[in-house]
Structures are given as C-alpha cells and as structure tokens.
Amino acid sequence: MTAFRFLLVVIFLAISGYTIVVVGDHGMGLLAVFFDDMAKLGWPGQFNLDFMCMLALSALWVGWRHQFSAAGLALATLAFFGGALFLSVYLFVESVRVGGDTRALLLGRERSAA
Question: What whole-number distance in Å separates Cα of residue 113 and Cα of residue 83?
Fold first, then answer.
C-alpha cells in the first residue's frame, strides 16, 4: 500500500504542476479545446473521447462505492470533472481511512464487510 500511496502522490504532484504551467500559458479554456478536438474527428479528439469515457467510469465507481448517496453523487461529480487529480487524492484519503484494506478500498466499507 505504501508504493501505491507514493504513486498517488507522484500523480497528484505531476498533474498539479503540469496544470499550473498549462493554465499560465493557455488560460482556463479547457472545455472549448477538449470538445473542439473531438469535433474534428482526429487523434486528439479520439483520445479525449476515450479519456471522457474513463472519467465516466471513474465517476460511476465512486458513486457506486458510496451507494449513490448524496455525498457519493457529489464525489462522483468531482471524479468526472477532476480526473486523476481528484482520484489521486480520493484514493489516498480512502486508503488511509480503510487502513490499507484493499477490499474495503475497492468496494467501500459496507460491501467489504459482507
């Protein structure tokens, strides 16, 4: 679990640093660029569509893990729009909360106890 948590910290720092540079150089116009690339039906758009599907799966898992409660739906929304930046923090915090229990991390406490 220590190596996994280390990876999560590396991911968070790398994406945070990269995002700061991109926002400084290009501003906050992510969505326009993201969907414009998809509309062009080229490789950047294909990657964006694939990535958006991964974001949707991540959000679905986070919502499911919290049994689609109000908090779970809020976290799912953050997962969709926050991507790996959110997920790295979420998984780090949850891994600590469940004491490193992988089953509880993946399923949530309620489902892992069954």
Answer: 28
Please give the residue range of the domain that contains residue 28.
2-112
- The count of residues in the chain is 114
Report d(CA 31, CA 58) in Å as an integer: 19
- Structure confidence by residue, pLDDT tens digits, 8-47: 999 999 999 999 999 999 999 888 999 999 999 999 999 9
Number of structural domains in the chain: 1
What letter does residue 29 receive in the DSSP assignment?
Answer: -
pLDDT per position as a tens digit, 65-113: 999 999 999 999 999 999 999 999 999 999 999 999 999 999 988 888 7
CB atoms within 10 A of CB 113: 9
Token pair listed for 98: 């469940």
- Predicted TM-score (pTM) of the model is 0.89
Between the two ends of the chain, the Cα-to-Cα distance in Å is 23
CB distance 65 to 107 below 8 Å: yes
